[in-house]
Amino acid sequence: MAQGLLVSDHPLLNDLYALNLKAYLDLSLTVVTDIDDALNIIDLDAQGDIIISLSQVEEKDSGKIILEHLEKKDNDCPFILIGENSAVSDVKRIVNLPANLNISLVIRKCAEILGVTAKEMASKKVNDFYPIPISMLECFSEAPCDIYTKVSKVRETSQFAKIIQEDEENQEYSHKKRIEKYRGLGIKQLYIPSGLRLKVVNLASEIVLKTLDDSKNDHAEMLKASEQGFEIVADFLGAGEKVSEEVVEISRKCMETMKNTLKKVPRLGPLLKQLVENKSGYLYLHAIVGIYISRHIIKNISWGSEEHSEKLSFVFFFHDIFLSPIFAAHPDLKYEEDMLLHSDLSEDEKETILNHARLASEAVKTFPRCPLGADTIILQHHGTSNGVGFTIEYKDDTSPLAKVLLISESFVEELIKERSNGMAKTLVSEIVNKLHLKFPNHTYKKIINCLDTIAF
Ligand SMILES: [Fe+2]
Ligand SMILES: [Fe+2]
Predict the structure, then answer these.
(1) Is the entire prediction scored with pTM above 0.90?
(2) Can you give the residue range of the structural domain that contains 164?
(3) How far is residue 332's CA from residue 329's CA, in Å, rounded to a whole number?
(4) Distance 201 CA to ligand 2 centre (A)
């Protein structure tokens, strides 16, 4: 086993380099975040077979300082410098690599220096990775398996780097803290070895079911747990699996929890605030706020009943569930209708977007005791009668509950877009005005008018 020294004050890079060099080259790195510590290790000649340093550490030219120290000590240990912000970047004695997340380049250079062959490296590669939403990984207090991130995409082949190791002893960075950090960087999904998918998703669903059962939890936790449940259901259905008992159980518990939580948070403002604090994803956020809005409409419309509310809650939970992997893979995506214009989508993803209403409608048909007609409302939720594509003209012959759904969704979308502007009260009336323009037919008007009394 080779040893080395990594000098870096960037915790994420430390994880990436240390875990991957260990996995691919069996190189164990001593990580220091302070240049003086690095110099002390060099003084003891304990740096091992290789030194890797960022070109700037704590805003100092670490390359120059370390190189001068090595020369003073007549130490010819190979030295890799990452980044070009050093006065010694051009010095021949140093291997200088660009500052990016190209972990494979760092691995290759280290392999060259350590004399590890490509064949030896290939034998250690893990083949196939499966995307898992970060919110699902958040329910674990310890990593359920090794966790990876996608670091680059060369043509159709992606490269993955390990960021969290199962059974890692370093307690300083717990699994939860690391996941939080990646989320802070805007990452919405991470990867696990494909063969472990079922194990991990099943473990996650056990944990989530337990949380949903625990009535002591406060509403913030319940909102979070039902989001995790929502992701688990999306994973099962997205992987093309039949609606199993597990999916039924977890969906029912989530819908129940969402309904009860909405009763505890009777105003829209605090609900939104909580979801934003939880960093909830768009799909879950628009589903739960949509349930809130549609319940309000049904309560205020002459023909509304509790049964209608229940049906719409069910519809909201499932209507976009097939979009979940697409939203996770493209964190910059915001709204459904903008999705087709997004340039990074693959043909397969575009196909799923166009057909997501039809796919969800077919999936819920196999759900035991699926509320009568829920599949048709899901099919029509973008205003087309066959569940394919998006309409621009909202017709009268759509079913009344599908109209409530269309309006509730539009309200939520506008609310999210406009939230930062203006006072809450004027915000609601502005959105209502916009909806009247978007849905001019009179059968929609009555439904829109119910929104005037929303409590923000
Ligand atoms: Fe939607
Ligand atoms: Fe949709």
Answers:
(1) no
(2) 129-177
(3) 9
(4) 24
Query: Exposure of 331 by Cβ count < 10 A (0-12 exposed, 13-18 middle, 19+ buried)?
Result: middle
> What pLDDT score was predicted for residue 290?
95
Buried residues in 406-419 as b, exposed as e (16+ CB within 10 A): bbbbbbbbbbbeee
Looking at the structure, do residues 166 and 56 belong to the same domain, yes or no?
no
235 located within any domain: no
- Both 104 and 149 in one domain: the answer is no
| 322 alpha carbon – ligand 2 mean position (Å) | 9
Q: Starting from the CA of residue 282, give the closest ligand.
A: 1
316's tokens = 């909201």
> CB burial class (10 A; 0-12, 13-18, 19+) of residue 101?
middle
Q: Average pLDDT for residues 189-199, to the nearest whole number?
A: 89
My answer on whether 437 and 348 are in the same domain is yes
Residue 20 has pLDDT above 80, yes or no: no
pLDDT at 25: 82
Asked if 331 and 295 sit in the same domain, the reply is yes
335-345 per-position pLDDT tens digit: 887 787 777 88
Residue 116 lies in a domain: yes
Q: Residue 165 has what pLDDT?
A: 86
Report CA(68)–ligand 1 centroid distance (Å): 60
Q: How far is the CA of 339 from the centre of ligand 2 (A)?
A: 11
Report how far residue 363's alpha carbon sits from residue 242's, in angstroms, rounded to the nearest whole number. 8
CATH number for the domain that contains residue 49: 3.40.50.2300
Q: Look at residue 114 and tell me if it is in a domain.
A: yes
315 sits in which H/E element? helix 306-318
Q: Are residues 416 and 398 located together in one domain of the fold?
A: yes
Same domain, 101 and 32: yes
User: Nearest ligand to the C-alpha of residue 317?
Assistant: 1
For ligand 2, the distance from its centroid to the CA atom of residue 361, given in whole angstroms, is 11
CA of residue 317 to ligand 1 center, whole Å: 9
* Residue 319 CA, ligand 1 centroid: distance in Å: 6
Eight-state DSSP code of residue 371 = P
Indicate if 66 and 140 belong to the same structural domain: no
Could you tell me if 387 and 267 lie in one domain? Answer: yes
Instruction: Say how many Å lie between the CA of residue 208 and the centre of ligand 1.
Output: 24
Residue 222 lies in a domain: no
Give tens-digit pLDDT for 281-331.
889 999 999 999 999 999 999 999 999 999 999 999 999 999 998 888 887
Output the CA 170–ligand 2 centroid distance in Å: 43
Cα(449) to centroid of ligand 2, in Å? 23
The domain total for the chain is: 3
CA of 174 to the centre of ligand 2 (A): 37
